[in-house]
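HUMAN: Ready with one sample?

ASSISTANT:
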Amino acid sequence: MLTETTRSGTAAFAPRARLLKLIGAELISDEVVALTELVKNAHDADATCVTIQFFGVTGKGGEVLIRDDGHGMDLDTLMSRWMQPAGSTKGRDGRRFTSAGRRVLGEKGVGRFAADKLASRLELVSRPARADSEIRAVFDWDEFEHDDRMLEDVRSRWELRSPDWLDSQGTVLRLSGLRVLWNERLFRRLSTRLSRLISPFGTGAKGFRIVIESDEFPDYAGEVAAGFLEQAPYQVEAAFDGGSSVSIALNGERPNQHAWPGNEPLRCGPVKVRLFAFDLETDAIARIGPRMEVRAWLREWSGVAVYRDGFRVWPYGEPHDDWLRLDQRRVNNPVVRLSNNQVVGFVEISADRNPELRDQTNREGLIHNEPMLDLQRFVLHAMLALEARRQTLRHPGAWRPEAAVADRTLRDSVV
């Protein structure tokens, strides 16, 4: 007890229940991001498949179920990890990889807050391998809204019961009391985001499938997948070894090796880049596939995405996220330069080999430091080679493809 004569002592923070609501609102920007975080949790549980089921979500009373066949949780895991925000061991040295060898994605334990972003009520059912029972826990996120309640005062119910929802190992999240009504725009964004969550080139988790089921939007149901990438008329694959060597291969040809031509070394670490470019004229689009489908796909996929260990780092590559300033480059040279809506790109980095390319606290982008600027410089170096090849194919005899690589000043690639 403090008295008027007290002059020193110690004090501990006493968090109010609303703290969880504030953290969730700050870390999770919208419903699509929230569902993506829950899919990442399934990945970290070594699931081979995660299914997102939507039931009546365009009106009141709708529900979303997320099912996976991962390891599942026992009571100790639920209490010691899931129920302890920021207490996850995923980010520690011993848990950088799952037991199946996957790189852990959920290092900040944001999944539980994603559930709050989506709905007011969460029913969690989980069953570990070889268990003869399943655990069920119920969370009412609105209980955390009260200003006069401390965090420790909000109690959530759990029980061990005979298997009911799960025939084998895995986890089911049942979200009810949805905070928004879903529409086609949200489904389209979710489908695109999940289809680009995993690198289409096999560098992410092998054997990890994402399936959407919906009773109201069947056009977006099924396993998420890529679209018209391989039909792109202009392609480049570039790699930087982390030292001074650069490799560039155009349209599947034999790679050209050369030294990094910039005056300053690149500090971003090893990087791989794949860029696919498209012409937007009607006849060019028709050579790829049905015009309306191709244009709709390009609207959703255009942009250069960043992948760490095979999984997306947002918001790079999202619509209108022109982090390489491609549109600005095109204004200065519209005949040669490609705009952001003509390019579908993939930049691949690694948490271990690119330690300076770190997430911002809210997991929405990388910290804007010198290694990040060098990453931009290298991607634009690859873009120069792609643009040069495109001019060669579009205007034979009027463009020398070696011009882009010979541009030692890299004036177009300095951000």
Summary: Residues 90-94, 401-415 have pLDDT under 50 and may be disordered. The radius of gyration is 24 Å. The first helix runs from residue 18 to 27.
